[in-house]
């Protein structure tokens, strides 16, 4: 019976920890990407006509896939009323390392 209480208490604690983790904003959960390989030059993408409504063009970018870069094509994204523009993400160098500065709305 004591083992059952320990298991139930452990499950309750696990549930509490999971709830806290889910409540953490994604921006604080994202790990910074730091690599020692410079990204390739951005690809040229013709920007198609915008769909009707408030949309911003989010340009394509090179994403680090763990073993190399993967091109993520550009796309239109709907803008919330409080935003006016998308600031694109970009790779920045720090000496011999490169880190990803994610894009954001402003």
Summarize this, please?
This protein has 106 residues and is an alpha+beta fold.
Could you explain how this protein is built, in words?
Mean pLDDT is 80; it is low at 2-28. With 106 residues, the protein is an alpha+beta fold. The protein has helices at residues 2-23, 26-29; strands spanning 34-35, 55-58, 61-64, 69-72, 75-78, 86-87, 90-94, 97-101, 104-105. It contains two helices and nine strands; from the N terminus they run H-H-E-E-E-E-E-E-E-E-E. The longest helix is centred in the N-terminal third of the chain and has 22 residues, at 2-23. The strands form four sheets. A three-stranded antiparallel β-sheet has the order 1-8-7, with no helix packed on it. A two-stranded antiparallel ribbon has the order 2-5. A two-stranded antiparallel sheet has the order 3-4. A hairpin with a 2-residue loop joins strand 7 and strand 8. The protein has two domains: 1-30; 33-105, no CATH class. It is globular. It starts with a helix and ends with a strand.
User: Approximately how much helix is present in the residues?
Assistant: 10-25%
Low-confidence stretches: 2-28
Query: Which structural class do the helices and strands define?
Result: alpha+beta
Number of strands: 9
> Biggest sheet: strands, sense, closure?
3 strands, antiparallel
- Mean pLDDT, to the nearest integer, reads 80
- Strands side by side in the biggest sheet: 1-8-7
Topology as a string of helices (H) and strands (E): HHEEEEEEEEE
| Approximate strand percentage | 25-35%
Total of DSSP H or I helical runs spanning 4+ residues: 2
Evaluate the radius of gyration.
21 Å
Structural domains: how many: 2
What general outline do the C-alpha atoms trace?
A: globular
Instruction: Please report the distance between the alpha carbons of the first and last residues.
Output: 57 Å
């Amino acid at each position: 019976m004591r083992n059952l209480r320990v298991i139930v208490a452990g499950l309750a604690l696990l549930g509490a920890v999971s709830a806290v983790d889910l409540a953490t904003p994604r921006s604080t959960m994202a790990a910074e990407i730091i690599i020692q390989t410079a990204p390739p030059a951005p690809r040229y993408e013709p920007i198609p006509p915008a769909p009707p409504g408030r949309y911003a063009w989010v340009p394509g970018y090179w994403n680090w896939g763990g073993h190399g870069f993967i091109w993520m094509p550009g796309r239109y994204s709907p803008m919330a009323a409080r935003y006016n523009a998308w600031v694109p993400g970009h790779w920045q160098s720090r000496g011999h390392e490169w880190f990803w500065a994610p894009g954001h709305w402003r």
